[in-house]
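Can't paste images in this forum, so I'm doing it all in text. The chain is below; anyone willing to post the predicted structure tokens underneath?
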Amino acid sequence: MDKYQSAAEAVGGETKYAARELRDRTDESRAQRGPIDLPFFLLTLLILMIGVVMVLSASFARAYYSEGNATEYFVKQLVFAVTGVVMMIVASRFSTNFYRRWAMPLLLFTLVMLALVPFFGVGRSTVGANRWFDLGFTTFQPSEFAKLAIILAFADLICNYRNLMGTFKYGVMPFAGILVVTVGLLLLEPHISASVIVIAIGAIMMFAGGTRWQYFAVGLIVVGLAGWLIVTKMAYASSRITSWRDPWSDPLDTGLQIIQSLYAIGSGGLLGLGLGQGHQKYMYLPEEHNDFIFSIVCEELGFVGAMLILVLFALLIIRGYWLALHARDRFGALVITGITSLLAIQVFLNVAVVTNLVPCTGISLPFFSYGGTALWIQLIEMGIVLSVSRDIPLRKRKGEKDK
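Text version of the structure:
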């Protein structure tokens, strides 16, 4: 008996020693994390700086009319941009384990906030929906948190169900349940554009995690039927479809925004009217410094300037996917995939809206559209990408081959 007991103690001692050694190696590796990915960081800063300048150009007329100070919106956006960069750098210092640990609490917090919006939220006359909490110095939109929360929570669940993602019970049901609850709360505001983005991000995360394609076919049918019901039963959605198909059917109301947007884009021509020289921002185009700021970009910088900005976005997105492919762990790769896909979706949909390719919805252009808390969240998301990039060996970032 003593022999077995001593053997068990020896095994237990070796196990504790191995666990302690593994923990020490993990702490050492965390302490030796590399620098952030410089190309991704510089591209983010460059796009952000251009966006802040465009907020000044697009907003000064409305700011002077509404606030009596032409630089009111610009100064606020500049403050949010500077503090947001600090937040991005701070976010890049936390490990991926930190974000995984807080993924589910963030999702629960977001769902509570979304549930409170219909009762305590405020709206805007140009939008006609309650989507914001008034914080006094700015407004807070819980749907922005929902996008990040979905990405982190789905990445955590996919890692937990790594070998079971091909099954319906683990590869579909938990994710579908989260999406149904989140989208249901968003539709109460109503916020159709955020609902579409959340569904798209959820589907991308599930696909990257290994969910079978057959389930996506079924999901596509369900989403299509739900979309048809929303469009036919909700006056808010049906009016958007009508104005999209024929903006000139109601040029002074539902079609006004897209008509003025097309005027701005068309008048910009190849090289634009010049920075600050646009006309549509003088109270003709609603949300000219927010969701429709890209129309002002086209008017003032022309086709060439607009394309250069889209190229910068494309480079940032490509670099993000490259970092995802070279991430050191599965959770980090999934998080970067989700954040980069979210950036790509929002850029595409915003440009599609202002050019009337898709129905008009409240989708902002990342780093350009005016909005403090939204900008903070976007920069925090970039900080999370940079956090994951710090665990990628410099040899891989420089494209060197293993010897």
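Strands lie at 122-123, 130-134, 139-140. Confidence is low (pLDDT under 50) at residues 1-31.
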